[in-house]
Known about the structure:
globular
Amino acid sequence: xxRLLALSLLFLTACGTYQxxxxxxxxxxxxxxxxxxxxxxxxxxxxxxxxxRLATYDPGNLAAALDSREEKLAFWVNVYNxxxxxxxxxxxxxxxxxxxxxxxxxxxxxxxxxxxDDMEHGIIRGxxxxxxxxxxxxxxxxxxxxxxxxxxxxxxIHFALNCGASDCPPVEIYTPATYNExxxxxxxxxxxxxxxxxERDGKRVLVTSPLFSWFRGDFRDHDGVDDFLxxxxxxxxxxxxxxxxxxxxxxxxxxxxxxxx
Length: 261
């Protein structure tokens, strides 16, 4: 009985997606639209027309246009960062209750109203539970999330997503063709600023970002946090067992943190 129930739940959460039409809407691509969204915000222009276009995009056409992993990641990272900047620039008071801000749907993409949590955990992280440290997937997901989630996620996005806090990574404008090079540079830049090795009582201690603690399971795509830190030059291979401590995260509201190229 329990096995049958589990299989039924698996079926219900795995089936049902928007079918890619094979006919992306003519003209500007979704990725170009996401780039224009951020470019307009950075320049201080009114971007309501772009917000409306993102809201009314046909989901089947969007699925057809976001054909590759890089297209999905570049689009959703741009839209997440644009959403946060757009909402908090217009209504800074939303951040007074940070928990409510992240979980309340306020931004529409392809006819589906999303919260920052919906977009980050349900789509960009590939359907991970917010509080599961990267080890517990979401059990019940809707058709929209099942269609657009990035399978397997990408641990590097934690150094690309800007949630409106002072310690968040700066906002980069990603393109699919250069996504990997851009985000690799963002990871190195952020870790260079937020990782130090200190000598304490004859022991070396790495002090680094709490992002590694909050989402530790996500870093399995690099065989774990230590290997990720080696891959990005924070640690030498022989230092993988070094003691780690995590910085306090500054949650003070700060919009307009843009990457310097």
